[in-house]
ABC transporter ATP-binding protein
Amino acid sequence: MSAPAVPARHHPLTELWSRYRAYRPRLVLAVVMSVVNKVMDVMPELIIGAAIDVVVRGGDSFVAGVLGVEDRFAQLGWLAALNVVVWVLESASDYAAQVLWRGLAQAVEHDMRVEAYGHVQSLDVGWHEARTTGGTLAVLNDDVNQLERFLDVGAPTIIGLVVNVVLVGAVFAVSSWELTLLAFAPIPVIVAGSLVFQRRLEPLYARVRESVSVLNGTLAANLGGLPTIKAFTAEQRELDRVAAASLEYRAANTRAIRSSAAFVPLIRMAILAGFTTTLLVGGWAALEGRLEVGLYSVLVFMTQRLLWPLTRVGETLDLYQRGMASARRVLALLDEEATVVPGTGTLPGPARGGVELRGVHAGYADGPDVLAGIDLVVPPGEVHAVVGPTGAGKSTLLRLVLRFQDPRSGQVLLDGTDVRTLGWEALRGAIGYVSQDVFLFRGSVRDNIAYGRPDATDDQVRAAAVAAEADGFVQQLADGYGTLVGERGVTLSGGQRQRLALARAILRDPALLVLDEATSAVDNETEAAIQRSMVRVTQGRSALMVAHRLSTVRDADRIWVLDGGRVAESGSHDELVAAGGAYAAMWAIQTGAALAPR
Ligand SMILES: Nc1ncnc2c1ncn2[C@@H]1O[C@H](COP(=O)(O)OP(=O)(O)OP(=O)(O)O)[C@@H](O)[C@H]1O
């Protein structure tokens, strides 16, 4: 799924207008500046007309009528002065409009991105699992940017076009209705032509974007897989593949350029028709004395001024449509509601880490129950393990304790309080969690360990690492605790990552430690290290851990064996082995496998 569904709602512009109230004054000012700028933009043509009028009619000129100045030089002087004022105002309003629109676009973009990210962050883990990261990222990045582009470029252009047609139309209308008709006649052709072109170009541009993304994807994948390419001496094959993708990009671009280049010459014909008729018909009227010469020159200039900007209608409309589609997607994302919402309560006293599941049924989406009636108790201070075959529902059980999802029925309690009533800090603040896929943030080892407690001192970080048996290998890294890990940092082994995650969890000094052991990530050394560190780090706290290697949980106070979403048996290691059930069989396989000759 690439983007959230777009529900029927108010027009996105209405929605944005009410959402970003704070920017209204700036928006109004930006519109005013754009209008002023357009008006000033049209003025020089009028001044030229007035100047010609002065030269031709002298004392009877329009300027003479308005100012009461007879002398032609004086009249021209006034016009020149007015011209200077107009140009200054045009430049100033152009500057102000650009700064205002761009600033507004940037501000809305920033607010929207931060708001959307904050919202996405608050949505359920399940919501994210049902979508691709790329799809959500596209809304947070591309759609937010597209809206910025519309505000920065599209909105001022639309205002400019409208003001232009209205102003020029008014000048024509007060001058001559015949010429108005002639000058406006090509407008439908130009607008329709622009729209048709836009529609024809759209798939061509889509093809260009598509081919560039294929090319980028190929390049990125190849750079990532360079060792494999070299190992299989596939260099030539990959070079050919990149060349083919690049060629496709070139071909797509060529097609788009050919079509888009034909646009202006064709539209030019329509403009030529309007211009020529104004020139001729207006000229005849002027010769016959029905039209003042000055006005005639104004109208000839104005025809161009009216028609040329209209060639941008197509691309501007496209910008508008994209902007609105993007705004709809961002707004739809903001409308998504979290189903797992935090409570407001706190625990009655300090957290002790006792966990209880009562008659819990849980599952994913519309699927069957993954947990089908679980009753489980971890008394405060005890270390319990959950084991069972793959897919038995072990990780799901841990997710319920952290409230990454809620049960379909039944209750999950922390220290006797339903987790649904607790605020995030009360619940998750009491838990140190080590997930199956350890996520390291881009930053130093120190930052990663201190993630849950950024104010921890170096000694505290070190002590947590020692307890998690991470100190040894961290010391051997080039920069020790300052070594950069995560994206673009040094690559750590699965076992090392897990030990860092354990250090991160225990630095928070949580009442309850929740561990989801990853099968693949645990080597023998880590297994032994975790076993040793578990004894240490579970002192004085409760723990609930999913284990695949039964040897790591031998010493647990109680082991729960899950099978098919139910508790098959539970007890201490010795009790379960003695009982000769599922656990005893798993134990026999694992120890037998360990003893078998390699
Ligand atoms: N996010 C999810 N969406 C849909 N189904 C899921 C999701 N996560 C787990 N499941 C399904 O729920 C069942 C239990 O999965 P779970 O991860 O809890 O098992 P597990 O006992 O931890 O397995 P493993 O030992 O392999 O980690 C599996 O059938 C799995 O396919």
About this structure: Confidence is low (pLDDT under 50) at residues 1-6, 594-598.
